[in-house]
Structure formats: C-alpha cells, structure tokens
Design brief:
The structure is a single chain. The protein folds into two domains: 79 residues; 228 residues, BirA Bifunctional Protein, domain 2 (2-Layer Sandwich), CATH 3.30.930.10. It has a seven-stranded mixed β-sheet with strand order 1-4-5-9-8-7-6, with helices on both faces. A two-stranded antiparallel ribbon has the order 2-3. The protein is of the alpha+beta class and 336 residues long. The protein is built from eleven helices and nine strands. It is elongated, with a radius of gyration of 36 Å. Strand 6 and strand 7 form a beta hairpin. It binds 3,4-dihydroxyphenylalanine. The site of 3,4-dihydroxyphenylalanine (DAH) has 12 residues, from strand 8 and strand 9. The site of 3,4-dihydroxyphenylalanine has 12 residues, from strand 8 and strand 9.
Length: 336
C-alpha cells in the first residue's frame, strides 16, 4: 500500500462514517476499520514494508485516520443514542450556552461580613423564629404595655395572638432562658413592621442582634467592642460616636454613629451636613430583662446592640432605594 492509497482510504473511511444514518450503519463502519479484524490493524502490520523514507508520513496519516475516525464514530454514536438523533435544526455538535454564575445577594454578603467580625471576637450565632410570642418580643424586653411599637398599626399580629417579630431582640430572651451566663451571641434574621414601603422603608427587613452577658461587663466593653466592629466594617479611619438614647430593654441606652463614609466627617448631602451616620442602637441590659429570663441581677451585667442590615448594605454599596434589594432584578443583583 502506498501513501497515496492510504490518504484515499482515510477520506473514504471518514466519508462512510459521516454518511452513516443510524446506529447499525455507524457500527458497521467501526467494525470495518477499527475492529480487531478490521482494515486499520492490517495497515499497521504493513507499516514494516513501507520504504524507510515514507515511514514518518505514513505513520502520521495512519494515526490521523485512527483518531479522526474514532472521534467521528463517537459523535455519531452519541447522536444516535440520544433518542434517534437530534431534532431537525438542532446541532448536537454546537458548544453549550454559558448560563452564567449566580452571585450572593448583597444582604447575605453584608450579613456574613458582620457575622464574621463578631465571630473573631468570640461571639457565636444564635437563631430564633420569625413568629414570636408577645412575651418574648415585648414583655420580657421590658416594653411598657402602652409602648407605641405594640400597636397593631406597627406590628403584625396573628389570629392566635402571636406576632411577626418586629426586631431580633427576642432572640436575647430565648437564648438567656436556655443558657446560663456567660453569653456572647449575635443573631442575624428577618423582622417585620407595618411600614409603608418607600425608598428607606420595607415591611420586611433584616437586623443583627448582639448580646454579651458576664460578670463585670461594662459600658467601656460595649464601646470597645462596637468601635472595633466599626473599624473592621468601614476601615481604620472611621470614628465612632455614642449618643444617649432610650430603649426599654437597656439602661443606659445609646445610639451609635459612624463618621460619614462619603465625606469622612466633613459634612455632605448624604449625612445632612452633620458628618455622622446613625448605624445602631445599644445599651447595658436592663435589670428587668435579667429578671424576666431568670438571671441573678446582682451577679451579672451585660450589653446588647441591634442594627439594620439593609441600612448598612445601602451605605456600603451606595444603594439609594431599599426596594432594589427586594425586586430581584438580576441586572441589579449581578453588580455585587
Ligand atoms: N431592637 C432595637 C430596634 O429594633 C435595636 C436595639 C437597640 C437592639 C438597642 C438592642 C439594643 O439589643 O440594646 O430598633
């Protein structure tokens, strides 16, 4: 057999394989060329009779014949085994379409970031249900009977008298009821309020609650912990301000501001020229809360804090409308 014969044979074999119209036909081609008694093994034996100067070209062509034919036969076999071939107009040999990878939702990303910062300080994550009792959500947290947040205008009540929690603070109550001090937890989760949706309000939003109870926990510990958190979240240059405030479940209570991330304290439109942005609420756990959960008020102290995740997410990513976070528009979400 000459090199020319071989080249012609290769063309013929590939042509036959290409023309095979069903599984039986392609199998016949396979046996004819690649089978144990097929043509290809015979040609391999003939290689020794080929003149030396032709050997490289001959060997190369044999290899091409073998590889190309094997590939084509495999392709045809797949085509025939997938339900008798492709539907008309469907080309099985086309590469698939890239569907793109999803991204984690910005709320999830920021929740994870906040969680990790407190985990490095030894806080563990505690969880609680979205549906709460009035006692866990209000009474145990020292909320007076006439407090406006209890109003049906503000809180979603269920028919059985339970409610959709309006903050993550009831997780404090649940956790202390089940664990002796010392306690060091954070609890991210969903909250619900009867708010009319607009650029900064949503009836469903997220908070992270924090609680630290032990002997001799002081306001200085609260300030140190939250200042560390601020620097980890916003960068080393952020300044933190603690303003007196009121929450039923803490005494004293503070609101915590960070220097504005846009103007760094100089004053701009975002911070309404004050240089500060309000980020979270905090305080020393009120002794009445300890009493409600059965802790010895004379032996332990603690601090607690709570922050809105949407607000922090909007600040960190420069999002101006909270509704973007709920509309699940991939053009918005894929930017994060
Ligand atoms: N529960 C408060 C709110 O929803 C936030 C908060 C403030 C939580 C002070 C706390 C705290 O634990 O100590 O606005």
């Amino acid at each position: 057999m000459t090199l020319q014969d071989l080249i012609e044979l290769k063309a013929k074999a590939l042509g036959q394989a290409q023309a095979a119209a069903d599984a039986a036909a392609i199998e016949a081609v396979r046996i004819e060329y690649l089978g144990r008694k097929g043509l290809l093994p015979k040609i391999m034996q003939e290689l020794k009779n080929v003149p030396n100067e032709d050997k490289p070209a001959f060997g190369k062509t044999v290899n091409e014949l073998k590889n190309e034919l094997t590939d084509l036969i495999k392709l045809k076999q797949t085509e025939f085994s997938s339900g008798g071939g492709a539907a008309p107009g469907f080309d099985l040999t086309q590469p698939g379409q890239w569907q793109g990878l999803g991204t984690r939702h910005p709320i999830t990303q920021i929740t994870d970031r906040i969680t990790r910062i407190f985990q490095t300080l030894g806080f563990t994550v505690a969880d609680g249900p979205d549906i709460e009792t009035v006692w866990n959500n209000f009474d145990a947290l020292n909320t007076p009977a006439d407090h406006p947040s209890r109003d049906e205008q503000d809180t979603f009540y269920l028919k059985n008298g339970d409610l959709m929690r309006c903050h993550t603070s009831p997780v404090q109550v649940r956790y202390m009821m089940e664990h002796k001090p010392p306690v060091r937890i954070i609890s991210p989760g969903r909250c619900y309020r009867r708010d009319t949706p607009d650029a900064t309000h949503s009836a469903n939003f997220h908070q992270v609650e924090g609680l630290y109870v032990d002997q001799n926990v002081s306001l200085a510990d609260l300030k140190g912990t939250l200042s560390y958190f601020a620097r980890e979240l916003m960068g080393p240059d952020v300044k933190v301000r603690f303003r007196p405030h009121f929450f039923p479940f803490t005494e004293p209570s503070v609101e915590v501001d960070f220097t504005c991330h846009v103007c760094h304290g100089k004053g701009c439109r975002v911070c309404k020229n004050s240089g500060w942005i309000e980020i979270l609420g905090a305080g020393m756990v009120d002794p009445n809360v300890f009493k409600a959960v059965g802790y010895d008020r004379s032996n332990v102290t603690g601090f607690a804090f709570g922050m809105g995740i949407e607000r922090i997410t909007m600040i960190l990513y420069g999002i101006h409308d909270i509704r973007n976070l709920y509309e699940n528009d991939v053009r918005f979400l894929s930017q994060f």
